[in-house]
C-alpha cells in the first residue's frame, strides 16, 4: 500500500509540473478553418475587399485599448488587387476633444505559415505595409502556469530569448517592427455581414465589426428581444407594492 501511495504522489507531482510548463496551440489557429475547398472562415481578403458604399462599424471589443474613442466606422477602397492592398478610412468620435476625427491608412491581406489563403490583415503605420515578416499567428500559443494563463504570438520563453538578443542588436534597423511600422490583425471568423479580428499586440482582445447596412435590423431585433424579457422579481414586487399603495 505504501508503494501505491508513493506512486500516486509521484504521478500527481509530475502532472503538476507538466501543467506549469504546458504550452498548447490556440484552436483558432488551424489551416483547415481557411481551406478554400472546405469554405474559408478566416478570409482576410474578403474582410477588407469592400467598396466605399459598404462600410463596417465597430460593435464590440473584448479588450478596450482605446477607451477615449467611440462610434468607429471604416470604409475601404481598392488600391492594388494583385498585392491585395486596400485603402482604409477610419472615422471615430474622440471623447477627449469632443469631435469626430479621420484616420487614413493602408491594409494588406497576408498568410501566416501553413495557411493556403490570407488570414491576416496587416495595417501599415508608416505607409504601405510590407509582406515581411511572415505573420506568426493570432495568439498561436497558450502557456498555462499554476496561477495564470498567458497568450502570445509565440511561447513566452521564445519572446524572452528574442528580447535578450535584441538588446545587443544594431540600432536603427530597417526591418519592419510590429507596433512601429505595422500592426497585424488576425481574422478569427468572417462572413459577408461581420468580421471578428484579433490583435495580439493590442492586449490580445477581439474586435467585432458589423456591416453598417445591417445595423438597423440588428438594433430592431435587440429591442424586440429586450421587450420580451420578463421583469425581475424585485421589479415586479416594487410595481405590485406601488399599485397596492395607490389603491389604499
UniProtKB/TrEMBL annotation:
List the keywords (alphabetical).
Signal
> What does UniProt give as the signal peptide span?
1-17
Which GO-annotated molecular functions does the record name? amine binding
Q: Name one GO biological process term.
A: symbiont-mediated perturbation of host defenses
Give positions of region: Disordered. Answer: 228-248
Tell me which stretches of the chain form a coiled coil: none
Q: Does the keyword Transcription regulation apply?
A: no
Segments traversing the membrane = none
Q: Which Gene3D superfamilies match?
A: 2.40.128.20
Looking at the keywords, is Signal present? Answer: yes
SUPFAM superfamilies assigned to the protein according to its UniProt record, in alphabetical order: Lipocalins
Compositionally biased tracts (Basic and acidic residues): 232-242
Superkingdom, natural source? Eukaryota
Name of the protein described by the UniProt record: Putative salivary lipocalin
Q: Which organism is it from?
A: Ixodes ricinus
